[in-house]
Fold:
Amino acid sequence: MQRNALKIFVIVVCFLPFHVAAQTKSAARKAETQNEDSFKQASALFEAGQAAHQRGDLERAIEHYTAALKLEPSLWQIDLQLSAANLALNRLALARQAIEKVIEHLSQYADSLELKQANVRAQLLLGEIALAEAKKEEAEKAFRKVLELNPQTARAHAGLAEMFLSSNKFNEAAAEAKIALDTGDQRTNTYALYVEALIAAHRHDEALSVLNELLKREPGFTPALRYRAEVFAARNDFNSAIKDLQAALTFEPRLQDKLRLAEWLARTKQYDRASALYQQALKDDPANKEAQTALAALLVESGKGAEAIAQLESLIQTQPNRADVRAQLAELYLAAQPEKALEQYSAAAKLEPANPAHQLGVGAALVKLRRFQEAVPALRPVLAAKPELAYFAHTNLATALFELDDFANAAREFVWILNQQREQKRAAITLYFLGICFDKLGDLEQAQKVYEQFLSLASAENQLEIDKVKLRLPPLKRQLEKGQGKHKKE
Structure:
């Protein structure tokens, strides 16, 4: 879900009848005398600008406002509308220039109800401009000032909600959006803002309730369909999530929604439908990396490994510098064709030398190829990587050291691995190899203890190892009885 979906700036269109401006005519004329014809022309241009503004023709509105200001530069109502129009077109510098002129002009008047209302509109617009410029402190200050002047200004609460949301203060954002709605702001976008804050705060039940009501009012509102789909997915109701996202796509066929839908289809094992969507996404955007790699992963998951390899090989031909594709291909090759895996992992490591996963892949491929002397230095740098990578680095390093008969260092690795394991099956086989290490090192007491631990955890899957340990334990015990073993007390 993308926050940019809510970055819809409110146009503060007041559509003031020009007689309001006429009330300030005498004050405006104090600075400079205007002839009646000039004022009438400015009046007509201002009203034409508001009409264009109201029907959404912002460029024409700006033309009229600008022409009116040339005739009557002191009328703040025109600058207010000009600022709103420029904000709607994301011309933030021009919007700020106009609104600051308005605020400066209003500061010259004596306090009155009309001035208070004008300042509410000006500060609200300033807050929205500052929010668009990512000037959060200034935006909050402006919105707070609006609420001091008029606590019932719903759009100021909506502005605060958007500010809090952009700062990852989700509960605060939800609270402000709720106040905006309760105060009379029934705009669909304010509902969407409220919902996004609730979802981000993991308040899914509340979000679902709001979304259901919102979609009753406006069944085709695509942001609401997308948000409800995400709520359903968070509740593991992927069938409902798929239904909503499909509906959203009929109204607005966004590529990112197609990819999200394909992901959910794959999770529900609807592989053919998911594959078709990924193929469609690649037809629309042949260079889309997410679709390329996801399609290959989907082919693997659906048992089409050969097709996945062909897909990735084709990608490498056209995009040879994509380390992620090379690593994905290497992973597919690792079990059956480790030499090809090594080639691809090595290429990925050269392209992204700072990525420890590629270096781990190189080490794992070398272990598969039984090139243990080369594997050890390749794996050691990965031991300090994040835990999930470090674990596999230790397991591969333990194997390499064991095969090199470096039992002392191998034992240290097996002990480390054993301390990380929570799965009985893996713990059993680790104990088996650790026991052998102690046995080879002549530490017979430790070997006996570890072998016995292995037997207590081993299952039928370990029958071969069980038989070997049972054969080894009687002579080992006799050696201990004879005082053999380097740790036996004299």
